[in-house]
Every structure is written in structure tokens, then in C-alpha cells.
Amino acid sequence: MEFSQIVRSRRTHRNFLDDPIPPESLERIVFAGTRGPSAGFTQATRILVLNDPARVELFWESISSSQWREGNSARAGLDRAPCVIIPFEDQSAYLERYGEADKAYSGIRAGEDFAAPFWTIDASFAAMMIQLAIVDEGLGYLFFALPFGIENLRANFAVPSNLKPIGAIALGYPAAQTRSASSRARRRIPNDQMIRYNTF
Ligand SMILES: Cc1cc2nc3c(=O)[nH]c(=O)nc-3n(C[C@H](O)[C@H](O)[C@H](O)COP(=O)(O)O)c2cc1C
């Protein structure tokens, strides 16, 4: 797909078919997640891919109740998605990396010295690369914040203690859009409200 078409057609889906994702598509999607930039080339983002139906089911049981999943018609077909990708950030790796000799010039010695959370930025970039690759494969997705159950996720998926999920991406073939999520009632702001050239 043309990049401009990927950008224009990207939108989130909350209702999926349970058809599996072709393995070669999934491979390209996950590969894209490894190609984002990272501060100091730290490369500390980790990506957990769940494509075994039993593991996907365990994911939903870990982070939500059936009430959460079914209680909102806008996401009634969300847990039918055959795959879930979870990007993890690792703050400790950045503290270590910026303590190395070639980063001494940065003056960064502790977490509060970072002007912005580089670990979250890098994991978000990886997540965005994945989202664009999903659209390129003709699939749909939802990136969503984990509602609760992070501790269950840690226990059920052997998540190392230094890693923290930034959210999750459910992906698959989109089914007809159900009624939209509440945020959809909001209108896209005009470009000139978001973009300024040369000065605010
Ligand atoms: C950090 C983050 C958290 C989000 N959490 C949720 C969520 O919990 N549930 C949901 O339905 N959508 C969630 N979304 C998706 C947004 O609602 C969606 O991106 C926004 O409404 C714009 O729609 P579009 O992505 O289709 O353009 C989240 C998006 C981001 C970036």
C-alpha cells in the first residue's frame, strides 16, 4: 500500500473476525516494530506477540472482566481478534545506557534528568511502526490502554520485572464497525489548529 494511503486510511477498529492472520503478514508486522528509532540506540523495547488462541484468551482474562468486554457495545467483537501484541518499556535500560561513557555529555545521571521519558517514547514509536504495518497488511487494530490486571499479566506471561506494558494492540481482519466508541463523537480538529509553522 502507498504510505500516503496507509496514513489516510489508518483508524482503529473494535470489532474483528476470528480468522487467523497469515504468518507471513504477522512476521512483517512484528518486524516493523523492531525498526523504530531508540534514544542512544538503547533498543530496550520488548514486544510480546500472542497468536495462540489459548494465550490470547488468557490475555483477556488477565486484563479485563467479561463485563468490561461485553458491557460496551462499541467493543463487543474486540476479543475475537486472533492476535494481541504488547509493547513493553524498560526505564532501567535507559538509566544504564545514559550512564555509559559516550553519553556523559548529556548530563543525565538519574531518571528525573531525562527531559521526557525516552523509554515510553521508544516503545510508542515501536507501537506506531506496528500499527502502520498492520494497516499495510490490510488488517485492522485497536491500540488500547490496559484497563487493569497488569499484575495478572506479569504472572501469566512471565513478564520480567523491569518491563512495563504501555498498552496493547489487538489485531485481525475487521468486521463491520459496531457503534463507535465514545471518543468517536469527537470531531477531528482542523489541521491549522494542530500545526503551526515557524512559531506559535
Ligand atoms: C494511549 C491510548 C489509549 C487508548 N485507549 C483506548 C481504550 O481504552 N479504548 C478504546 O476503545 N480506544 C482507545 N484508544 C483509541 C482512541 O480512542 C482512538 O485512537 C481515537 O479515538 C482516534 O480514533 P482513530 O485512531 O480511529 O483515528 C486509545 C488510544 C491511545 C493512543
Question: Which helices and strands occur, and which strands form pairs?
Answer:
Layout lengths: L2 H7 L13 H11 L12 E5 L2 H11 L2 H5 L12 E7 L1 H7 L20 H19 L3 E5 L5 H7 L7 E2 L2 E5 L18 H4 L6
Antiparallel strand pairs: 1-2, 2-4, 2-5, 3-5
Flavin mononucleotide binds next to strand 3.
Describe the structure.
The chain is an alpha+beta fold and 200 residues long. It has a single domain (7-177), classed as NADH Oxidase (3-Layer(aba) Sandwich). The chain has helices at residues 3-9, 23-33, 53-63, 66-70, 91-97, 118-136, 150-156, 191-194; strands at residues 46-50, 83-89, 140-144, 164-165, 168-172. Strands 1, 2, 3, 4 and 5 form a 5-stranded antiparallel beta sheet that branches. The longest helix is centred in the middle third of the chain and has 19 residues, at 118-136. The chain binds flavin mononucleotide (FMN).
Rg estimate, integer Å:
18 Å
Q: What ligands are attached or bound here?
A: flavin mononucleotide
CATH class call: Alpha Beta
Please indicate the percent range of residues in DSSP E strands (runs of 2 or more). 5-15%
Task: Provide the succession of SSEs.
Answer: HHEHHEHHEHEEH
CATH superfamily: NADH Oxidase
| Spatial shape | globular
Number of separate helices: 8
In the predicted model, the low-confidence regions spanning at least 5 consecutive residues are none
Question: Mean of the pLDDT scores?
Answer: 94
CATH topology: NADH Oxidase
- Report the major sheet: 5 strands, antiparallel
Helix content: 25-40%
